[in-house]
Amino acid sequence: MTNHSEPTIIMYGLSPKVCDTIKKARRWLDANSVEYRFHDYRADGLDAEFLHSAIRELGWEALLNTRGTTWRKLDDSLRASIKDADSAAKLMLEMPAIIKRPLLCAPGQPMLLGFSETLYSDFFR
Predict the structure, then answer these.
(1) Most Cβ neighbours (<10 Å): which of 45, 73, 86, 98?
(2) Rg of the chain on CA atoms, in Å
(3) Active site residue 19
């Protein structure tokens, strides 16, 4: 019996069906033979402890996608109420689609947020 261990690199985001950036990032990982596991915030859930560790490492401002549709659809008073890590975390837990993506986690490396071929090439060098 062969022991197939699970990949230690995890990509967090939303289904490639709804997120083109995830689609591009997954295509790059596959083309470069990088083993990873995909964690869909909607299907697999979002762990509060994990979110808080990402906020500590990257900052809530970086994680909060204020350029996306989800943010733009919020009413002005809700947008205005997001002033710190706690209010941002509460919103992200309620609406994971508002988190910038992808978020890539690899053991012993800093978290990597967003996608570009250059960013990924440097990260996996």
Answers:
(1) 98
(2) 15
(3) yes
Which residue of the set 9, 11, 19, 51 is catalytic? 19
Phi-psi category of 32—alpha, beta or left, where left has phi over 0 and alpha has psi -120 to 50? alpha
Euclidean distance between CA atoms 2 and 113, whole angstroms: 34
How confident is the model over 46-95, as pLDDT tens digits? 999 999 999 999 999 999 999 989 999 999 999 999 999 999 999 999 99
Taking the model in full, what pTM does it have? 0.89
| Confidence at residue 2, expressed as pLDDT on a 0 to 100 scale | 42
For tokens 């109420």, the residue is 81
For the stretch 27-36, contacts whose Cβ atoms lie closer than 8 Å and that sit 24 or more positions apart, written own/partner, are: 28/115, 28/117, 28/120, 29/120, 32/120, 32/124, 34/9, 34/124, 35/7, 35/9, 36/7, 36/9, 36/10, 36/11, 36/104
